[in-house]
Structure formats: C-alpha cells, structure tokens
Write a structure and sequence with these properties.
The protein is α/β, with parallel strands linked by helices. It is built from 19 helices and 14 strands. The longest helix has 24 residues.
Length: 595
C-alpha cells in the first residue's frame, strides 16, 4: 500500500542506486510536490515507524563545464514519479586500502561524478492522502495508466523537529553517506530528522589552479567540497520543514574528516546562519595551504594544482574538464599511498579568509553551541604504518634520545608526560593528544570568545574484541554508539569482527545518543535521567567521560597534554616552515637537533 502525502513548494529530484538498504521497506510514502512526485519508503526500525528518502539531489550535477565550480542549488522541475528509495552513487574516490585482509578494507563503491545527493530519515507523522485515493494508486503503474493524480494537500507536518545533518569522514579522500555505519534510524527514533549528505572528495572537491582562480568571480579556487556542504545546508534550510524538520534548529555533526568539515563550517563566513549547533567527533585542525604562496611548509595550492594537471597531460582548463573522471581518478590511484595526496581546503580569501585556528583565536567562529571530543586510543592506526614501525625504538634509552632530538627544550615536558618506562603508551598517545585531542580542546577553549557554551567529552568505551585485541577505543569506534546502532552490527569494514555488544555497550549507546539528541534539541547535552554535563570553562575544564558502560562528569582531561602540544604547535607556527599532521607527530616528527 502507498500512503500519499502532498506538499507545495518542495524542489526535489531523486536518483536510483543499487546500494543495499539497511532496513526492510514496508510500504511507499509518496510526496506530491510542485515539481513532481517523490517516492520514499516507510520503514519500521526497532518498533518505531520512520519515513526514509534516499538519493535526493541538492545541487546541479558538477559534471562537464561544472567540474571544479562552486555547487549550484538545484531548482530543477520534472513530471511524474521520482524514486527516493535507493542511495545515489558515492562521489569519485580512490581505493585507499588495497590489502583485502586489512581491518579497514572496503571494496570500491559504485561511484559517479554526479554525486551531490542527500538522504533523510524522519519520524514525523506525515499527513496522509484521502483513503479513497490510496487503493486507486496501490499498483506500481496505476497512476500512469489511469491518468489520475491524488488530490493535493497543502498542510505540512505538525512537528517542527530538530534536524541533525551528518557529514561523513574519510580524510576528504573517500567515504559515502550511504555506508551502513551512518544509518540515521537510531537517532531519528529519538525524535530528530536525520540528514546525511555527500560532497565532492579528493581532487574533485579540493583542487586549485590559476585558471580556476582567474575564472572565479571571487578570485578563488579549491574549496568545492566545502561549498557542496554549504549548498546542502541551504537545501535543508529551504526544504526540511516538509519532512517535519525545523529549519531554525539545525545541528551539523561529523567524525574525523567530517568533524574537520564541521570546524571549517564554524568559521567560514559563507555558512553563517545555516546551522545552530555543531558536534565534532575526533576533529583535527591542520594548517591549510594558501592559494598562491607557500605557507607552513606547504606548497601553494595553485602550484600543486599545476603539478597535478601536468601529470594528467592537460595544458588548459578546457582539457582538464574534458578528461573522463575515471582518468583523473586513475592518476590518484597510481600514487602508492593515496593518503600522500590528502586534500585540504585552501585559504582563498572567500570561503576561508585566514587559517582555521587563527579564526577561532580571533573569535570569528559562528556563535553557536559546540560539542567536541575524541576517543581513548585514537593513535591505534598509526601502529600499522610502515614508517611508524621503522621509527619504533627498541630501548628506553633509544626512546629518550629520539625524543630529545625532536623536541629540544620541550623534551623534559614530553618525557614527563610520555615516560620511557611506559613506551607503548608513549608511542601512541602523542598521536591521540597532539592531533585529535589538541584540536578538540582547542576549539572548546576558544569558545570563550563567543557567548555560546562549549562541551568536551572523552570516549573510552570499546567492544570486547577491540579491547581484548589491544585496539581499545580506536578512531571511529564511537560511531555505532553515537548513532545508537550497536545492535545493528553496522561496521566500517567487513573485516571488523561482529560487534557482539554487551549490556554495557547498549547502555553507553543509549546514553550518548540521548545527549546528542538533547544537544540538537536545545543547545545543551542535558538529557532526562542522565548525569549532568557541565559546560567547558578554561578554569575547570569540565568534560564528560564515557567508559565501562556509563557516563560520568570529570575535570581536567589528560592533564598537561593540551599544554605540551600547544607549545609544540606554537613553535611550528612561529617557524612557519613545517605543518602539523598525523604523520609528523610524536616520534614521526622530524629530527631538529642531535641528541
């Protein structure tokens, strides 16, 4: 049976995909719009009815002459039915992990350069069409055969639910909103409209070139992936009310590169007013390349673009745009380590007028409540890198010598925090503290420059197989919990063991998702029957810890870690010739002096 729902003024257009759906499709939900018919799916998730719409385009496809141009909000119209029951293809991306036995291996997804789509899970009670019309259109083709259309209704859902917009991770290199680990049902069941968005990745989304700068009315190039996210938020502002969402109560949230994107949106002047709260799960805050000059040891973004264009054999912008997308992707795939080409946004004077950390320090971030944090063993994945294995010291004396060669007058502070007597922790903890931890604490500390509150958390819950295998609460393990989906066995990779959650895992998932929804609802993580979560203040440094099946408030997270890494990064900023990233922190930092 189809339930007919009719709205005026919603501009949507859908694209079918072959990607699988996580829940069973029980019946269709049909939205009549001024531009045509949108068909979604009514599903039941853990006993709760939800409506799900997949593959809704929010921008004009960025293909042909629109490759490497800012996204344009879609206003296309159509006639007839458009399916919104399948995810759209992922954006173009390389195979970042080629070893099929690797814990993070994923097969290459179905992908396309035409990829600017979003997905919506809503618990709102959508108004039903007249009963006598439902039987008339119960067959798949009955409307087309009869030539009749259901009576239009002008009412909108009575609800004005909080909206949560998810930005996926993947180092800005890969990833997709369609991955099962990003299923929004668990959060939607708690009373929010959940939206997941796709955006252009790697060189398709982050590519500067003098010719692109010259053709731009803003004399800027390179931030196309960021512009996609901003355009998706504009679509949400204009259209989400018909799904029962409140356009004046939008929370953006993401993990890893998604959290990095959240930080970017917090300071870009182009995103002002498009969201009202922000959650950053395991964020980072690297220096950005400048458009036309080297900075912090990074080449000018335009110069990097010229180098890549030359490798493609393209001499003009027209030739670059004429290249098949597969040829461009193949050039990325030819690099032995695709992460060597990790893309970055650009200080272009338009999307970003300055470095992200400078904008936070100047109080230029949007005045919205912020929630940020990281996991207890963010550095686990570094132990798998060949360069880390080669840098691993065999003895305490060798460890101390390596530290002193890299950190000079900060060596005593470094060794006090990460002593040779606990080398295993000393090898991995700096990657957690100096990359993800520093960024999370940096933005909540700088929140004192705006009136809105900020909240800090530390996530140290882990599934049994991760804890027993020595991985602990590694980077990304928080996703099944924050999505309230530990029971769905949703995994980043098929190579992850089955989650097999315990009662403690279920409790933490229920607790943390309650906080996330409460924050989205009212701007503070104050959930009924949950421990009080105080706002972070530089004086007492309050935070919420999640571990051992519970949440508890504490103060002064990992004392001394932020201060040490703030000094390390400050020295690099003053020198101006070295970036900071996950591959030059800890003992992977370059040697500065002889031990």
């Amino acid at each position: 049976m189809r339930i007919h729902v009719v709205y005026i003024g919603l501009f949507v257009w859908c694209f079918a995909s072959v990607l699988a759906q996580a829940q069973d499709r029980d019946q269709d939900v049909v939205l009549e719009t001024a531009r045509g018919t949108l068909i979604g799916a009514r599903i039941v998730s853990d006993g709760s009815p939800l409506s799900l719409f997949r593959g809704i385009p929010y921008a004009v496809p960025p293909v042909g002459e629109r490759r490497w141009k800012p996204a344009e909000l879609l206003h296309a119209s159509w006639e007839g039915e458009r399916e919104a029951t399948s995810f759209a293809p992922a954006c173009m991306q390389p195979q970042t992990v080629k070893d099929k036995a690797h814990y993070a291996y994923r097969p290459a997804p179905q992908m396309s350069e035409d990829c600017l789509y979003l997905n919506i899970w809503t618990p709102a009670k959508l108004p039903e069409g007249p009963p006598d019309r439902r039987d008339e259109v119960a067959g798949e083709h009955s409307e087309k055969l009869s030539g009749k259309r259901p009576e239009r209704l002008t009412e909108k859902p009575a609800e004005k639910l909080p909206v949560m917009v998810w930005i996926h991770g993947g180092s800005l290199v890969d990833g997709a909103a369609s991955w099962s680990i990003y299923d929004g049902a668990g959060l939607a069941r708690k009373g929010v409209v959940f939206v997941s968005i796709s955006y252009r990745l790697n060189v398709f989304g982050y590519f500067s070139h003098p010719a692109l700068t010259a053709e731009s009315g803003h004399k800027a190039s390179g931030n196309y992936g960021v512009n996609d996210q901003i355009t998706a938020l504009k679509w949400v502002r204009d259209n989400i009310s018909v799904f029962g969402g409140d356009p004046d109560n939008v929370t953006i949230f993401g993990e890893s590169a998604g959290a990095y994107s959240v930080l970017q949106l917090l300071v870009s002047p182009l995103s002002e007013g498009l969201f009202h709260r922000a959650i950053a799960q395991s964020p980072y805050l690297k220096p950005l390349p400048a458009l036309d000059r080297p900075q912090y040891g990074l080449p000018a973004a335009e110069a990097s673009g010229e180098t890549f264009a030359a490798a493609l054999g393209a001499k003009t912008l027209a030739e670059l745009r004429a290249l098949p997308a597969a040829d461009i992707l193949n050039a990325v795939n030819r690099v032995d380590d695709p992460y060597a080409m990790i893309p970055n946004p650009v200080v272009d004077g338009w999307v970003f007028p300055a470095q992200l950390f400078e904008l936070f320090e100047a109080g230029a971030q949007h005045d919205v409540p912020v929630l940020a944090g990281y996991t207890g063993n963010e550095g686990f994945q570094m132990s798998l890198r060949p360069d880390w294995q080669q840098a691993r010291p065999e003895t305490a004396r060798e460890y101390e010598a390596m530290v002193r060669a890299r950190y000079g007058d900060l060596s005593d502070s470094y060794l006090a925090l990460y002593p040779p007597s606990d080398r295993e922790n000393g090898l991995l903890a700096p990657y957690r503290d100096g990359f993800f931890g520093w960024a999370a604490q940096k933005i909540v500390r700088e929140s004192r420059r705006v009136p809105s509150d900020a909240y800090l958390y530390y996530f140290d819950q882990a599934f049994g197989w991760a804890r027993n295998g020595g991985y602990g609460a590694f980077h990304g393990i928080d996703l099944p919990y924050t999505f309230n989906a530990v029971g769905q066995n949703a995994k980043y990779s098929a190579n992850w063991p089955d989650l097999e959650p315990t009662a403690a895992d279920y409790r933490v998932a229920d607790i943390i998702s309650d906080y996330w929804v409460a924050f989205a609802s009212g701007g503070a993580p104050r959930a009924k029957d949950r421990p009080e979560w105080p706002a972070y203040q530089a004086g007492d440094r309050a935070y919420m810890a999640f571990r051992d099946g519970r949440a508890y408030a504490a103060r002064d997270l990992l004392p001394g870690s932020f201060e040490l890494h703030e000094q390390i990064i400050r020295k690099r900023r003053e020198a101006g010739n070295m970036p900071w990233s996950l591959v030059n922190i800890g003992l992977l930092a370059p040697v500065r002096s002889k031990p």
